Amino acid sequence: MRSEELEVRSLPAEELWRDRSQESGMESLMGMSGKEAESNSVINEQMTILDVVSQFRATEKVFKKYDKEAGTCLCCEALFEPLWKVAQEYGLELDRLLNDLRQAAKVW
Q1: Which domains, and CATH codes, for the chain?
Q2: How far apart are CA 25 and CA 93, in angstroms?
Q3: Confidence grade of residue 49 (pLDDT, cut at 50, 70, 90)
Q4: Which residues contact 14 (CB under 8 A, 6 or more apart)?
Q5: 56, 43 in Cβ contact below 8 A?
Q6: What is the CA radius of gyration of the chain?
């Protein structure tokens, strides 16, 4: 196919952000500064390890601490899993994990 026959469509950045924010439930945080959005974020059992670590870098140490209990590197093996599933699959106490993560992130 010749390049002039190829039609490429792209969406404006605003539409891409709107679509992604609706998928992730972040629409209420749009327009806030980083500190405002972070202070309104709460670590919960539906978040993935990646969600938690990317928003709260200090929590990486908590996951490292739980690696021994889980018998594996959680950030390596379960990065895209929700915390409830990680706790279930690796025999971790979910409430204790959430409390430790919130303490490390200073978010309640």
Answers
A1: 11-40 (no CATH), 42-108 (1.10.3910.10)
A2: 26
A3: very high
A4: none
A5: yes
A6: 18
In angstroms, the CA 33 to CA 10 distance is 27
Which has the closest alpha carbon to 59: 38, 28, 30?
A: 38
Q: Tell me if 43 sits within 8 A of 105, measured CB to CB.
A: yes
What three-state secondary structure class fits 59? helix
List the beta strands (DSSP E) in 16-108.
Answer: none
Cα–Cα distance between 61 and 57 in angstroms, integer? Answer: 8
Q: Mean pLDDT in the chain?
A: 76
Distance CA 15, CA 12 (A): 6
Tabulate helix, strand, coil % of the chain (nearest 5): 65, 0, 35
Say if residue 88's pLDDT is above 50: yes
Q: Please list, in sequence order, all residues whose beta carbon lies within 8 angstroms of the beta carbon of residue 12, skipping any fewer than 6 positions away.
A: none
pTM: 0.62
pLDDT of residue 29: 39
